[in-house]
Amino acid sequence: ALLFLALGLGWLRLQDSSSTSLGRIGIWESAVKVWAMDPLFGVGPGAFDGDYHLVKIPRASGVNRYLMDAQVAHNEFLELLVAFGLVGFGFGGWVLWKVWKGAGVRRPALAGLGAASLFDFCFHNPMIALEGAGLAAVSKPRKTALSWGGALLAAGLSVGLFGSALGARALEGRYEAQVAQGRFPEALRCLEYAERVNAWDGRVTLQRADYLERLYLATKDPAWAGEADEAYARALDLEKSDGQLRFKDAERLTRRLSLGPLPALVEAADRAWREARRAMPFNALIRYEEGLFRISLKDGDGALADFQKAVELEPYYAAAWANLGFLLRKKGRKAEARSDFQRALEVYGQWKDARRIAPLERQLVDLTPATVKLLRQEVAR
Prior knowledge:
By secondary structure, this protein is mostly helical. It is 71% helix and 0% strand.
């Protein structure tokens, strides 16, 4: 009964997909493609979140084609295969077999949990993972004497596994309090201590990098710029497959150009945009923002290529159609420009009153009132 209940719930999950999260079958297909990158040893735990953007398949309907995201494979067995390859999958299968042999009366519950794991990331939930560990325990518990050594070992493991994260979280709370009081040097020290305590958490490093970048923009002191660059480089090194982080880095370096378009700054920003594009080749938002970057450099041809790629990836990208039209009109290609202006207005008119679309999709189809007025004037000419 538990097995059929889990399979029924899994079928319902297959029918559930939001506008920016592809259905389970599409995610599984992408997971197989990610696994194919390193079939023997896998791409590593947590890497699917980033590598998914290299192989994602487009949606067949809806507002967007490629904006959906998937942080996990939504299938624990596929997740194991993707992260650790055939070697890890084989070891995991051996462990599951040993657990099954000793489960006894708990086998129906384990079967139900296993069936649910075919459709979702059950064991990524700590509560379910603990329940699974309890079900996997031996059926006939043995009475054992209390052991101080065992207690110390358990305490040491708990501190080692969770102490650094808890310590970093407490220091982040102190950082926010120091910022609220205007004690900026003390705030920076809190972030530095948090990074030392939890050195392998890219989020902590990124938080310090963002703070250093704000200090640079506020003071124009190049020393802060150098420290911010080092912190961002470390965050990118910790999260090598995180395309969103590379997108954020490109936007950061582009903002620096407002202080003066020095050749070294332009080169750094240009390199960052190329890296973001490689990390997320199907993301039209990156191509659109890179197009604006090219316009600021008066690189009309580069901006034109970016906007053309943006509308190729996302045909309902109204602002990209509008900018593409303005660039074509500047080149004297008036008929093509007018067609693009009409397309931008069509997209906006079709989706402007839609209610059940995600914020990212709203970003695609929305236009400012001033832009709408200007486009209507262009089309009426």
